[in-house]
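Students often ask why we bother predicting the structure of a whole assembly rather than each chain alone. The short answer is interfaces. A chain on its own may look different once its partners are present, and contacts between molecules only exist in the joint model. In this exercise we take two input lines together and write out one structure for the complete complex. Read the inputs first and try to guess which parts will touch.
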Amino acid sequence: MYRYDEFDHKFVAERAAEFRDQVRRRLAGHLTEAEFKPLRLMNGLYLQLHAYMLRVAIPYGTLGSRQMRQLAMIAEKWDRGYGHFTTRQNIQFNWPKLKDVPDIIDALAEVEMHAIQTSGNCIRNTTSDPFSAVAPEEVEDPRITAELIRQWSSLHPEFTFLGRKFKIAVTGSEEDRTALKLHDIGVQVVKRDGEVGYRVMVGGGMGRTPMIAKELRDFVPRQELLPYLEAALRVYNLHGRRDNKYKARIKILVHELGIDAYREQVEAEFASMDREAIAAPAEEVERIRAYFQPPKLSERASESPLIERMKSADPSFAKWIERNTFPHKIPGYVAATVSLKPIGGAPGDATAEQMRVIADLAEIYSRDEMRVTHEQNIVLPHVAIDDLYRLYKGLSGIGLDAPNKGLVTDIIACPGLDYCALATARSIPVAQRIAERFADNDRQAAIGPLQIKISGCINACGHHHVGHIGILGLDKAGVESYQITLGGDATETAALGERTGPGFSYDEVPEVIETIIDTYLDLREHPRETFLQAYRRTGMAPFKEALYAAA
Amino acid sequence: MRLLDRTGEIDDLWPAVTDELPLAGRALVPFAMLDEALKSGLELGVDVPNTIDPAKLTRYFGRLAMISVDFPGFADGRGFSIGRKLRAEGFLGRLRASGPVISDQFTYLLQCGFDEVALPDDVAARQPIEDWIAQLGLITSGYQRGIDGRGSILDQRWSGR
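Now the answer. The structure tokens for the assembled complex follow.
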């Protein structure tokens, strides 16, 4: 894991002092509310429906036990005893008081954390693959690059007042677990003729105008990444629309100019720059790399007689291991996903007690490391297969052992009308009611991989556009109405879901989801044909028929 | 309008001219008047909107002692890129940010190549000069390289090792 040095510590401490000063100047009337708003947003502080919300950055989703315990402490001391892990690998606290926020920020700084640029029209927290340093096929750990980008994007003097927010994801694998193509810029670490560099994608995004990113450059040499990003951002900053906030994301600029014209401008800018002056020195990249040395895991037997025995003895453990573990590049290890989607819970929520339990287990069984996933779960990346039963027992009994990773109840949902000032409909209760309907683990396993994603408004924080089944809650003349989309995909085969037709009422949604799933189960050619594969084969027609024919 | 730079409040030496050019001295003219003004012997500055393509100014650099970039609102950050680009293209004269920016942007402006800020009176009345000067000591270094007048943390890490 990356550790702060004296410079990082000083930077974060100065930023915390700056925020205290901004609060003081707001209260003294030097800053108007309109002027203060972007400043507090760039420190992670939102005004929600009922209260302030503080969003804390978890760079590329990686954190250690000490940090997780501090988040638990913050949840108990300054919030209502829980936090919400987000689709951008961050955590947000829903009930802090404004007067406490500077103290919370100081508490974060104690454990090398901050809330910088988790909101506002600036470059947001850089996200990455939760299976970094685990996935067998990765070119290199993408967090080396993500950390470089985190530093470069922190308080960048040129790019802190952009037209709109700007999200960057980095992956080191062909198999994409970062929703790379739904980001303003997606950076993929690739190897060409033995040289490591980057494929750069641009102009993806969700919101009211969802778009899949296009390729900007197939290969940027490693040492030129930062100047290349500066060129891409500068063209956006100068030419992106400012007349309409809904058309201000880079995806609209790329769409309106066309990718070729945008690329031409970026390349011209890049060619005219003093690239060496901007690029990170090679020794700095190596310094960061040293923090991401893979843990020294000694190879172990891939088969564990103990675990095989326990699987036979405890069928629920067998189900959990089947669903919630991911192969590790070192034989004898796996990455284990701790589901934050218990039946009836709010997706992504964790209590302080749960955070401490996960932190303890990570310390014992996963080299003191955790990853937040964009699906709002927690991964323990380096678990010896022999330890899995002990880990599983540690997760049991406090709502952390759901064997549902990637299944129908592993739902992404935004906070929705329960918290959010922008929401037009509830999200969390919809997720809860669907999960309750499909609570049976065997039924979930029989349905197979199926991602439901729910947004409570058109801004699409719940990623509904790329859900295999997407649900969008709208307000139709004062009544919640839910639009359903099918066939979305957030991975390397990214696709936007297609609308089934007219929306459904809040009460109808679980039944509608069941109809869609029953239709799939009827038409799939064999049990291994997934929902997404079946949908791609048949198209919308059979689903539409099942949903609307009776009416 | 109040003018300030990193030393505090300063006098405005650039009379803005929108119609008749003076016979001698200095004039800050809109971009549309620049070609005409160049025929005079005046010392010239030019006032540009933040929608301008900075490349259009390059050929005038030798004749311009000052460029004033408009910031129509503090949240409209196009001017930061314009400033940085003008410096990268080799502009050595005075660079002014003109508009209702806030003191929290002062260091960013300086780092993007600006020398001074021209504030509307109402903004200046709310944000005393002390706020602006205090900003200079708040965030003492940054991560980016190739930024005006500031070393980068990335280099500081390696200096003296």
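Check your guess against this: Chain B has a mean pLDDT of 94.
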